Amino acid sequence: MSGAPGSGESWHAMRVRPSGDPAPVIAALFAAGSQGVQEIGDAVVTHFPPDADVERVRAGVARADPGADVEVRRAVVPDWTEAWKGQVGAHALGALTIVPPWLAERCDPARTIVIDPGMAFGTGEHATTRGVVRLMQRVVRAGDVVADVGAGSAVLAIAAAKLGAARVAAIEIDPEAIGNAEENVARNGVSGRVTVIQGDAASLLPLVAPVRVVLANIISSLITELLPVIERALADDGRAILSGVLAAEREQMLVVLGSRGWCVVEEDAEDVWWSASIARA
Fold first, then answer.
1. So where are the chain's domains?
2. Which helix (H) or strand (E) segment is 102 a member of?
3. Which residue, of 5, 118, 165, 279, has the greatest Cβ tally within 10 A?
4. Which has the minimum average pLDDT: 165-169, 174-178, 222-226?
């Protein structure tokens, strides 16, 4: 997901009061393009860019929770850069640490992923990113070929290279995220091993196969659609790491995985999010 508040822009501030479990509303907001949500009291709060189709977002929320109350207002973002700098910190995740450029000076480059949060989803601030990074440290091996679908900022592709992967395809459908991803790859010194590719994962994943590891930090419905493509793309001993799945969706996802011949090797949970390392049974 891409796009970030620019200084002085008038964005749509959306406050949703779910009628019950907030998980379906959160899932609907992310599916509509939200880059992050915050639960404040009984409400879920998020922002959408000036050109967002607010009525489409409302409709998605209504389908997920017909009883939800949705309030939208305009909010001017005064100074995105300074506000973001105050919110983005360093995240130590096992052998790797994700940091923004302004905190990277004293870090060991071999163990550090430097991500500019200015353009694309994936800074280490989101629990789904952290879940994949924790899991992949017990999956990615030296010399592996890896595909990262829905790469965003390329943070996970860079992490795979830092863990020893020989070749990584960072696949991202959003053209606005590509420049930021390429800059992050160059900034981290892994341009020789990570290739950013714009396009649809369902079409591109077969072209980079076979791969030993597929990383998929995307929404659960897209994961379900891509499972057959992921299976065909994996080498015989291949593994996939899935994230972007709400904890409330875990049982449903386990049923889907089991029905399609997958087993869960390891799980990770943080906040309302569930991540898993899976293999073919």
1. 10-81, 88-280
2. none
3. 165
4. 174-178
CA distances from 246 to 28, 64, 127, 148, 274 (A): 11, 14, 11, 20, 6
**Which of 186, 189, 220, 200 is closest to 147 using CA atoms?**
200
Higher model confidence: residue 78 or residue 156? 156
Q: Could you tell me which residues are beta bridge partners of residue 11?
A: 75
Backbone angles phi and psi of 221, in degrees to 5: -65, -35
Task: Assess contact for 14 and 85: CB atoms under 8 A.
Answer: no
Question: According to the model, what pLDDT value does residue 192 have?
Answer: 96
**Positive or negative torsion for Cα 187, 188, 189, 195:** negative
Say how many Å lie between the first and final Cα of the chain, rounded. Answer: 32
- The pLDDT value given to residue 103: 78
- What are the residues facing 24 on neighbouring strands? none
In DSSP terms, 267 is beta-bridged to 276
Please, which pLDDT band fits residue 176 given cuts at 50, 70 and 90? confident
124, 130 contact by CB (below 8 A): yes
Q: pLDDT band at residue 278, thresholds of 50, 70 and 90? A: very high
More confident residue, 154 or 84: 154
Please answer whether residues 212 and 237 qualify as being in contact, where contact means their C-beta atoms are separated by less than 8 angstroms.
yes
pTM: 0.73
What is Dmax (Cα atoms) for the chain?
A: 52
- CA-CA distance, 2 to 33, in Å (whole number)? 8
- Say what the pLDDT of residue 41 is: 80
The CATH fold of domain 10-81 = Alpha-Beta Plaits (3.30.70)
- Coil vs helix vs strand at 75: strand
Of 77, 76, 59, residue with least CA distance to 68: 59
| CATH no. of 88-280 | 3.40.50.150
